[in-house]
Amino acid sequence: MRPDTPAEYVDHNAExxxxxxxxxxxxEDAEHLLLQAAAHLELADDRxxxxxxxxxxxxxxxxxxxxxxxxxxxxxxxxxxxxxxxxAIIDGVRAASPRDPAPWVIVAESLEAxxxxxxxxxxxxxxxxxxxxxxxxxxxxxxxxxFGRHRVRRMLGMPHDAWDTRADTLHKAPVSLDELHxxxxxxSLGSDNPxxxxxxxxRLQSELTTAREALSRPFPVAILHWPADELAExxxxxxxxxxxxxxxxxxxxxxxxxxxxLAASGTGNLGxxxxxxxxxxxxxxxxxxxxxxxxxxPQYATTLAARGRAVAWPPERGGAxxxxxxxxxxxxxxxxx
Length: 337
Prior knowledge:
Layout: H1 12-25, H2 30-43, H3 47-58, H4 66-79, H5 83-96, H6 101-113, H7 117-132, H8 143-155, H9 162-170, H10 177-180, H11 194-216, E1 221-225, H12 228-237, H13 248-264, E2 270-274, H14 277-286, H15 296-306, E3 311-313
Parallel strand pairs: 1-2
Antiparallel strand pairs: 2-3
């Protein structure tokens, strides 16, 4: 059950408790599961308990994305009166310069929600400068950074710059970002001008469509990646899978080719999930199926992505290649991309 499910269809407290229990059973996925639990608690208006979960995560020494947890904690704290602590955490997140766009978006939107528009604009811009300088094709995960920056700058009456233009290009809805983010939009349903009301309905429908599209893909379309030692163990244990993986080199090449084809077809939010034999065997057992069944492989990849195990593709410019070679992506599988 996703946290965005309407309250009338879910008991958010019960769902948070279920996710906490599940995190105890699957400690390797505890970070992702507890973040979902905290989201449910926030929706249940039990913000102090959500903060307790964020603190529980931050006490761990093995977090994959501590900046994201801190950003979520700050946004939550500010919502129930702990402004000074929230501001201090936000300053710390900005100073840490995370390479993931999500913490930047969360702290900037928190500032925006509390009418700190100048600070929000500066935060969005800092994130964009860090993550998107010299990036020709902004990854899907960075789109909210550009859209949020466009929105705040529009409210501040600032002129368009190159990134605002890029945001306009990435925005695919029929109503333009300039119109959606216009601070002079007519919100009053008491207007006696049918044309104004019809225009506002069209804008709201466009916003709703965009929000639904974002929620319809809460995790990436992911391709399964077997590291060399795991692949060797897999085909040794289940020889029937060898036709799927003639060699490790061909496996890596197929991953890159498949992702490029998906990107060329217009599919966004792409990722790669690393597989392990024990995890795959456990998944097969949960499906009451044999690990030798090749049809389980895409289901396994989707399940790993849904559990937050996917790494975004393509890597950021200058980032390490996803294959684990240690070389930069542009000099490895990203050659000619």
